[in-house]
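Worked problem 6 (solution included).
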Amino acid sequence: MSAVKIIRALLVADAALMALVPAARIVAGIVQQSTALPAVAITEVSRFDRPVLKPGASFHCTSRVQVTVIAASYPAQKQILGAVRHACRDKVGTIAAVGGVSVLLASTGPDFNDADTGFYMQSQDFKVGFTEPT
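Solution. The predicted structure is:
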């Protein structure tokens, strides 16, 4: 959960993204069907805890976090995804009370759209490193 918490904190702290998507519509997990657009979902895809033979008070983890943008138009999808990338790329330090954080861009997913619902979607993955207590 720490990696998702880190990414959400970066997203809601970004003024440019907040001008496009209200903080209440940037959610950890799945966006509810009744949610107005645009919306952003944050999910953890995978996690690797670095193995340590003599663990100390903390250990380092790396997670892959996927941020999915859901918008009502293709231009809005692209604009919001750009703001998401800008808000989270190349961040280091203590974020959301989690130490040893590093956030890097990973892969960008394909464009999706659903003609029946009018949804336009695309995802951006981030590699999130952080320290957790043992």
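Discussion: The beta strands are 26-28, 39-49, 58-71, 91-95, 98-108, 112-114, 119-133.
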